[in-house]
Amino acid sequence: MAHLTPFRAHDLFRFNAVNLDHWTETYSLAFYLSYLATWPDLSYVQRAPGGGGGGGGARGGMMGYVIGKAEGREEGRERHGHVTAITVAPEYRRLGVAQGLMRLLERASAAVYQVRVSL
């Protein structure tokens, strides 16, 4: 069974198999770290079954991840959740991985920040 876990700083060194894809936007290390520091409850990783923790593929590798934020603090603007990045390794696409990550982001946004995710 796959494991959903919070995205942590050390995961930045394990997500190349997911990120090295022409469909995936890649950001700077500082960008990822600022999100993890500011909205730690809105970033998650799905890992394949098995041990290890390497890149993608078998043995506990990263299947995909989602990074979000809560925004809208300005007066007159409704607060809402925002999907900053969601991506799934090519070998795990069309299996519902992104759908599960989105559901988790929606639940966490509502529970922790009392906001709805806007798509």
Name the features:
single chain; 119 residues; alpha+beta; Aminopeptidase; five-stranded mixed sheet; 3 helices; 26% helix; globular
Question: How does this structure look, described?
Answer:
The protein has a single domain (3-118), classed as Aminopeptidase (3-Layer(aba) Sandwich), CATH 3.40.630. The protein has a 5-stranded mixed beta sheet with strand order 1-2-3-4-5, with helices on both faces. The two termini are 28 Å apart. It contains 3 helices and 5 strands, in the order βααβββαβ. It is globular, with a radius of gyration of 14 Å. It has 119 residues and is α+β, with helices and mostly antiparallel strands. Helices cover 26% and strands 25% of the residues.
Using the CA coordinates, give the radius of gyration.
14 Å
The largest sheet, given as strand count, sense and whether it forms a barrel, is: 5 strands, mixed
- How many strands? 5
In helices, the fraction of residues equals 25-40%
* The CATH H-level homologous superfamily: Gcn5-related N-acetyltransferase (GNAT)
CATH architecture level-2 label: 3-Layer(aba) Sandwich
Unreliable parts: none
What's the number of helices? Answer: 3
Distance between the termini: 28 Å
Task: Using the coordinates shown, work out and report the CATH topology.
Answer: Aminopeptidase
CATH class: Alpha Beta
- The coarse overall form would be globular
Mean pLDDT across all amino acids? 87
Q: Enumerate the strands of the largest sheet in spatial order, edge to edge or round the barrel.
A: 1-2-3-4-5
